[in-house]
């Protein structure tokens, strides 16, 4: 019996609560690991090296990081539930997860996940910026007017349910591999951490689009009504929601609803 078969057998034998707990533990490990790494790099390493600059120099709210961690733990529990749901749908034949591991298959699946995540996140984010959902749901995330690496999962539970559906919705029309589903949260949260780093890295524009995500998303936290994309600015530019980079040092951080 090869490793893939052994892993598949373990998943089939495990209860949904166990699978959910394992998924949540994985998300927690990634969240705290990248949160600590991002804080260390942006507060100590990059400033000492003279690389880039802090984007928004306003102080954090008292207790902000503690609140972000508490909300993120609730989100992580919800994501764990989605992990169990993903495997349950496969076990019941409602979707299909591929268990074989190949370099080509993994690369293709990660590409598909990246594209779908951009579309899914943009649509969900625009929805969250409608008046009622912003006031009652998404405003929780925007309490972090100055983002930190620990604000990545700082959501109202309804927002966590909405954003956490990215893989389940993809499974409805695409046979995803288990290995891509296992790998992509690390890639996604690394990108999300960059987006909440509140630190601009002075890098050549031609290769640094991912590293400029922090500028893109910090401007969203400051101006609110624009820059709804996850990592790429393409959908914002196509759909007229891109914020001018020249306005990044303007504005009072107040919330203005659509």
What does this 3D model show about the protein?
- With 258 residues, the chain is mainly α.
- The protein has one domain (3-247).
- Helix content is 59%, strand content 2%.
- The protein contains 10 helices and 2 strands, in the order ααβααααααβαα.
- The chain has a two-stranded antiparallel sheet.
- The longest helix has 34 residues, at 16-49.
- The N and C termini lie far apart (57 Å).
- The model is unreliable at 247-258 (pLDDT under 50).
- This is Sterol desaturase family protein.
Q: What is the strand arrangement across the widest sheet?
A: 1-2
Helix/strand-derived category reads: mainly alpha
Q: SSE order in H/E notation?
A: HHEHHHHHHEHH
**What's the number of helices?**
10
Which stretches of 5+ consecutive residues score pLDDT under 50?
247-258
Proportion of helical residues: 55-70%
For the sheet with most strands, the description reads: 2 strands, antiparallel
Span from first to last CA? 57 Å
Binned strand content: under 5%
Mean pLDDT: 87
Q: What is the domain tally?
A: 1
Shape: globular
Radius of gyration: 19 Å
The strand count comes to 2
């Amino acid at each position: 019996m090869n490793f893939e078969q052994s892993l598949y057998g373990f998943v089939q034998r495990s209860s949904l609560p166990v699978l959910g707990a394992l998924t949540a533990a994985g998300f927690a490990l990634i969240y705290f690991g990248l949160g600590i790494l991002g804080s260390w790099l942006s507060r100590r390493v990059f400033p000492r090296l003279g690389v880039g600059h802090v984007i928004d120099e306003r102080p954090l709210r008292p207790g902000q990081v503690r609140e972000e961690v508490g909300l993120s733990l609730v989100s992580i529990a919800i994501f764990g539930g989605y992990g169990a749901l993903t495997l349950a749908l496969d076990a019941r034949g409602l979707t299909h997860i591929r268990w074989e591991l190949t370099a080509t298959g993994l690369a293709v699946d990660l590409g598909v996940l990246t594209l779908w995540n951009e579309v899914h996140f943009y649509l969900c984010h625009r929805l969250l910026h409608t008046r009622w959902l912003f006031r009652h749901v998404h405003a929780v995330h925007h309490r972090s007017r100055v983002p930190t690496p620990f604000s990545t999962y700082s959501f109202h539970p309804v927002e966590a349910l909405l954003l956490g559906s990215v893989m389940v919705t993809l499974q409805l029309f695409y046979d995803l591999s288990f290995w891509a589903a296992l790998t992509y949260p690390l890639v996604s949260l690394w990108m999300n951490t960059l987006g909440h780093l509140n630190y601009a890295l002075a890098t050549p524009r031609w290769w640094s689009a991912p590293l400029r995500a922090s500028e893109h998303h910090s401007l969203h936290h400051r101006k609110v009504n624009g820059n709804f994309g996850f990592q790429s600015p393409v959908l914002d530019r196509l759909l007229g929601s891109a914020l001018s980079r020249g306005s990044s040092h303007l504005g009072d951080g107040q919330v203005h609803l659509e």
